[in-house]
Amino acid sequence: MTRFIFITGGVVSSLGKGLAAAALAALLQARGYKVRLRKLDPYINVDPGTMSPYQHGEVYVTDDGAETDLDLGHYERFTGVPSRQSDNVTTGRIYQTVIAKERRGDYLGATVQVIPHITDAIKDFVLAESEGHDFMLIEVGGTVGDIEGLPFFEAIRQLGLDLGRERALYMHLTLVPFIAAAGELKTKPTQHSVKELRSIGIQPDVLLCRSERPIPESDRRKIALFCNVRREAVIQALDVASIYEAPLHYHAEGLDEQVLRGFGIEHAPAPDLGRWRGVTERLHQPEGEVAIAIVGKYTGLKDAYKSLAEALVHGGIANHVRVKLEWLESEAFEQGEHTVHRLEGVHGILVPGGFGERGSEGKIKAVTFARERAVPYFGICFGMQMAVIEAARSLAGIKDASSSEFGPTPHAVVGLMTEWSRGGVAELRNAEGDLGGTMRLGAYEARLLAGSKVAEIYGASAISERHRHRYEVNIAYRPQLEAQGLLFSGLSPDGTLPEIIEIPAHPWFIGVQFHPELKSKPFDPHPLFASFIKAAVHQSRLV
Ligand code: GLN
To answer: Helices (DSSP H) in 269-381: which residue ranges?
Structure first.
């Protein structure tokens, strides 16, 4: 029997609903249950693929090539369950489905309405492919009361009735703020938020109350009384130093127990929290620290590189060190030589994924610095492309080497591929095509060169990693670049698309066309990040 947990949020946004959902899923999983997480996003974009990272943070890519909300990254990092296209839906996609059906005439002359047609489409999405799971955790994006969220709230309300009490549970995340002037915590915003939820017919079963200070017993009783929730089901969620402490904290507060109680499950298996204890211990007792510079464009908003920042933390966990991240705006490097000196003293340099010409020359300067000074360099996607341009210009003497992403160039060492193959099937791309969903997206296999550094790091000769890019390193330049010491150590199975480059003569210089950060987990750090941080630890002993 599959049970559904609906997770909503109130009072303010950014309370960490996605993390709370992921941590709860991790706790249920630790008790041996099979879990899957899903996200309902009320915005109108069909997917976040076309949204600016400034607006919405990182776009998280799944194996099956979906561009999804960054919360799906938390889901995977906490449970290890790979997300799929079918785990994230938006208002845009729901309407797209319903309108396509209407055009086909599938509604047989009916007037198509929000209730029941839109709500039915949402319900179909929630229920799809849920068989075989013990718990489906369904997070509703946004805050209760938002106009665009209403159809989603209505759909999950109906599902409560359809599924019955023993198969549906509502968890609401709220904020209990500390008001300095009054010197006390305030429960009123929580009361109002639950009132709002109840006005649309949803009575929460569990309240998870975010607070920066411990919530006194009297306040918990008050919240329970005014919100019509069992006293034990009012759970405090205090701020934690690391997100990976959340499962242990929530467990100590009784979250998983109360959720199970809500379903009437009295004798659940005890959780095995060893995995989370191990991760927390390593985070609390680092044996050193390394500084990594991330030279990028959206460094003002950390969420734009969420998975990357987490994967670096995981690399630290693997090596028992704390990883200090220094976010540097690549554009600043273009304004003068001296700014590059900000890279002096860091133990590793990383150029992450990115789009567009702005800031690219600064990134290339960062590559030159890393290559010449033998500082560990990790180039991811755009960061690999910039490393290849740098090598073409500085080592192979192709002075005007560039990417066709920046406009026409006589030496496109990075260019637009219009055709490639996936498992022997041709896929096409067109320069004038739509921007949404037209990149090389999702999992692709790569073959690793025997004896190369990456083959040693992965301990494998073939790998599968996730992609999200439109341009490719141009294989035609391989002989010229390899003659100068830039090895093409990973290629697509047909040998046409460069997937990995490395400089064997450098202590650690690797560029990858894919996004390894998307698959790293705190309890299973990605080998490339573990190896990069290991090289940074080595570097820190030299400087
Ligand atoms: N802008 C580059 C491309 O489209 C790189 C994309 C990325 O870094 N994700 O190929």
So the answer is: 274-284, 306-319, 330-334, 360-372
Using the mean position of ligand 1's atoms as its centre, give its distance from the Cα of residue 373 in Å.
26
Residue showing tokens 């007792």:
285
Q: In terms of domains, do 180 and 92 share one?
A: yes
Give the whole-angstrom CA distance, residue 329 versus residue 304. 13
Quote the tokens at residue 488.
């093409």
Query: For the chain, what is the radius of gyration of the CA atoms?
Result: 25
> Is the Cβ atom of 74 under 6 angstroms away from ligand 1?
no
Does this model's pTM top 0.90? My answer is yes
**Measured distance CA(471)–CA(388) in Å, rounded:** 13
Count of domains forming the chain: 2
Show Cβ contacts of residue 291 under 8 Å, excluding neighbours closer than 6 positions. Answer: 324, 326, 345, 346, 347, 348, 536, 540
CATH of the domain at 275: 3.40.50.300
Q: Distance between CA 481 and CA 390 in Å, rounded?
A: 11
In the reported structure, the alpha carbon of residue 137 is separated from the centroid of ligand 1 by a whole-number distance in angstroms of 32
- Amino acid identity of 27? L
Single-letter amino acid code for the residue at 377:
Y
Question: Ramachandran region of residue 145, left (φ > 0), alpha (ψ -120 to 50) or beta?
Answer: left
End-to-end CA distance of the chain: 58
Query: In whole angstroms, what is the distance from residue 381 CA to residue 385 CA?
Result: 6
Known active-site residue 515: yes
Q: Are 447 and 428 in contact (CB under 8 A)?
A: no
- Determine whether 381 is an active site residue: yes
Give the end of a domain, one of 220, 251, 279.
279
Query: pLDDT 10s digit of each residue in the chain, 543 long?
Result: 999 999 999 988 888 999 999 999 999 999 999 999 999 999 999 888 878 777 778 999 999 999 999 999 999 999 999 999 999 999 999 999 999 999 999 999 999 999 999 999 999 999 999 999 999 999 999 999 999 999 999 999 999 999 998 999 999 999 999 999 999 999 999 999 999 999 999 999 999 999 999 999 999 999 999 999 999 999 999 999 899 999 999 999 999 999 999 999 989 999 999 999 999 999 999 999 999 999 998 767 778 899 999 999 999 999 999 999 999 989 888 876 667 788 999 999 999 999 999 999 999 999 999 999 999 999 999 999 999 999 999 999 999 999 999 999 899 999 987 655 555 566 666 555 555 546 889 999 999 999 999 999 999 999 999 999 999 999 999 999 999 999 999 999 999 999 999 999 999 999 999 999 999 999 999 999 999 999 999 999 876
Report which of 314, 302, 323, 9 is spatially closest to residue 153, judged by C-alpha positions.
9
Whether the CA torsion 15, 18, 22, 25 is positive or negative: it is positive
For ligand 1, whether the C-beta of 304 sits within 6 Å is: no
Q: Is 417 in the pocket of ligand 1 (CB under 6 A)?
A: no
Q: Identify the domain containing residue 473 by its residue range.
A: 287-540
Q: In whole angstroms, give the CA distance from residue 356 to residue 435.
A: 13
**264 and 303, same domain (yes or no):** no
Q: Please give the distance of CA 296 from its chain centroid, rounded to a whole number.
A: 17
